[in-house]
Amino acid sequence: MSEWLSYRPQDFLMFSPRVYERLFVLHNEALWPTPLLALALGAALLLALAFPRPVRIRAGLVLLAAAWAFVAWAFLWQRYAPISWGIRYVVPLFALEALLLLGLGLRRGGLALPTGWPLPRGLGMALVAYAVFLHPLTAPALGRGLAGAEVIGLAPDPLAMATLGMAAMIRPTWQGWALLVIPALWCLASALTLYLLDSPGAWLPLLAVLLAGVARFWPRRTPA
After folding, report:
1. What is the pTM of this model?
2. Which of 42, 49, 55, 111 is 20 to 30 A distant from 197 in Cα terms?
3. pLDDT tens across 78-108, in order?
């Protein structure tokens, strides 16, 4: 019993900060030049949300669905699961989010964004913009270099943050909440992992969840 009490939370991680950082470097190298395409598609998603039309929103949902499926297989299953046994149980949740996004994207009637620029839409757009353009820059800011950048559509954190941004502002409300749950859970788990790795960026996924929650709880002028 005394031996168990001597353990710290960090001792239960199966990898070091260096190994974790190398995941993204190796992932980007193996897929190059796909990160550039992923950035372009992320920018297209942002434009579609900035100038929404039903067909654009559907296309954005389908694009996100494909990204969740790809990240589940290419990053979580192929790279992350071999160094962390718990990730294998996360992969089905990513697949479920992909199916949910795809189903809503193909649903008759579709989804809508608030008219104008109320706070929920502003926060949602800010989350998507951050995930696409700024989150990859946290890698060099944290000393990992651009080779280890986490790019939307290829890495789970920016993908979850962008999905939180979309979920924060879409209507009907219940569908926004449905889309929000899994990316929020991932961001919380990622924040804990980064905290245990003593990463100074551990607060970023937490902030994304907080902003998405504020946007979703913010009173709407009209019922959704």
Report:
1. 0.90
2. 42
3. 999 999 988 999 999 999 999 999 988 887 7
Quote the CA–CA distance of 113 and 121 in Å, as a whole number. Answer: 7
Q: Which of 90, 115, 88, 58 is nearest to 187 (CA)?
A: 90
Q: How many CB atoms lie within 10 A of CB 134?
A: 14
> How far apart are alpha carbons 129 and 9 in whole angstroms?
33
What SS3 class is residue 199?
coil
The DSSP call for residue 152 is: B
Whether residue 172 has a cis bond before it, omega within 30° of 0 = yes
Phi first, then psi: give them for residue 152, nearest 5 degrees.
Answer: -60, 140
Q: What is the pLDDT of residues 134-163, one digit of tens each?
A: 999 999 888 888 889 999 999 999 999 999
C-alpha 224/C-alpha 212 separation (Å) is 17
Residue the block writes with tokens 């924060």: 168
Which stretch of DSSP H or E encloses residue 48?
A: helix 34-50
Query: Whole-angstrom Cα distance, residue 217 to residue 204?
Result: 20
